[in-house]
């Protein structure tokens, strides 16, 4: 069984991460064991990307514990990304960074450690890989296109909307895809301008944004806000409206949710480790989505309305056959 040890990552002259970084015990003296560090800038309990990635990390430990010496760090301040990544790179063969917000720092750190493999999950879809840096694209936009189609079909008011966290390229593209999906199944639907609250994990800001959208006539919203979903859920409950959940599917018995976008970031963490172990790892853009054979992305319908199922099926088919571009 793995024991956990703290990893003291020094930043700005203080021990910034001693309580939030954990790994398997002991120094790795076996060259056949792959040393892996998973960098999670948010909380492993965020009900979103970080928690999904952490689930993949846990599966790696359970299934590959004799082949992998794994550690992770969570809840890292943006100002400390670079030093934390440098420390991780100095201790690991493979560093997996989750979230496009780490891209600028990761591109600075990767060239400093040419013998270390790096993977960024959720970075810019058009980013140019570096010799030792691969990009894994969850293709959130594909899922949000389907979420838009579901929202368009489910809306009674004829108005829908989208709330995002940080205004990163992947989130902006997802908002565009949501709009395109809604108009794909219902050309006359009104899609409110997307709202970006500047934080994935601020329930108060997300609630305010959702309340504004509901007051503006929307009765179904989609989102990419992680912990911010708590605030959006409150807004939906208070106004009698609905929303799409995700990226971790929840319980359809909660009447607030019209469905869930499933984006399994843990699948991408596992792919990075397995491809490194079997020698197939490449510094390239790797897509994960509805059109990928790697799995990890789907839309789960909670509505019993047959029109919603029909809209979701139409959207998925259109993406698969290439007749539409999500954004």
Automatic annotation (TrEMBL):
Listed Gene3D superfamilies: 3.40.50.2300
Top-level division of the source organism's lineage: Bacteria
Signal peptide (from-to): 1-21
PROSITE patterns according to UniProt: PROKAR_LIPOPROTEIN
Cell compartments where the protein resides: Cell membrane
Protein's UniProt keywords contain Cell membrane: yes
One cellular component (GO) term of this entry: plasma membrane
Alphabetical UniProt keywords: Cell membrane, Lipoprotein, Membrane, Signal
Domain ABC transporter substrate-binding protein PnrA-like as annotated: residue spans: 35-242
Official protein name in the record: Purine-binding protein
Source organism: Gordonia insulae
Lineage: Bacteria, Bacillati, Actinomycetota, Actinomycetes, Mycobacteriales
């Amino acid at each position: 069984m793995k024991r956990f040890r703290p990893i003291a990552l020094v930043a700005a002259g203080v021990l910034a991460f001693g309580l939030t970084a954990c790994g398997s015990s002991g120094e790795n003296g076996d060259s056949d064991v792959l040393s892996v560090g998973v960098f999670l800038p948010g909380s492993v309990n965020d009900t979103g990307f970080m928690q999904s990635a952490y689930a993949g990390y846990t599966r790696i430990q359970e299934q590959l514990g004799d082949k992998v010496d794994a550690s992770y760090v969570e809840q890292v301040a943006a100002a400390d990304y670079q030093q934390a990544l440098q420390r991780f790179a100095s201790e690991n063969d493979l560093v997996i960074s989750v979230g496009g917000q780490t891209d600028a720092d990761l591109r600075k750190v990767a060239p400093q450690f040419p013998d270390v493999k790096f993977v960024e999950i959720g970075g810019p879809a058009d980013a140019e890989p570096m010799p030792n840096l691969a990009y894994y694209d969850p293709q959130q936009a594909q899922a949000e296109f389907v979420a838009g189609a579901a929202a368009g079909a489910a809306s009674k008011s004829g108005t829908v909307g989208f709330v995002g966290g940080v205004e990163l390229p992947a989130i902006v593209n997802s908002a565009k895809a949501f709009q395109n999906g809604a108009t794909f199944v219902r050309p006359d639907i009104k899609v409110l301008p997307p709202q970006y609250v500047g934080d994935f994990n601020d329930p108060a800001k997300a609630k305010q944004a959702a309340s504004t959208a509901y007051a503006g006539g929307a009765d179904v919203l989609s989102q990419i806000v992680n912990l911010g979903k708590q605030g959006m859920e409150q807004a939906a409950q208070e106004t009698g409206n609905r929303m799409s959940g995700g990226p971790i599917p929840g319980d359809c018995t909660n009447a607030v949710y019209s469905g869930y976008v499933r984006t399994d970031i843990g699948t991408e963490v596992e792919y990075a480790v397995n491809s490194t172990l079997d020698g197939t790892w490449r510094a390239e853009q790797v897509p994960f989505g509805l059109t990928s054979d790697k799995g990890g992305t789907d839309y789960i319908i909670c509505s019993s309305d047959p029109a919603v199922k029909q809209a979701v099926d139409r959207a998925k088919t259109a993406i698969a056959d290439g007749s539409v571009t999500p954004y």
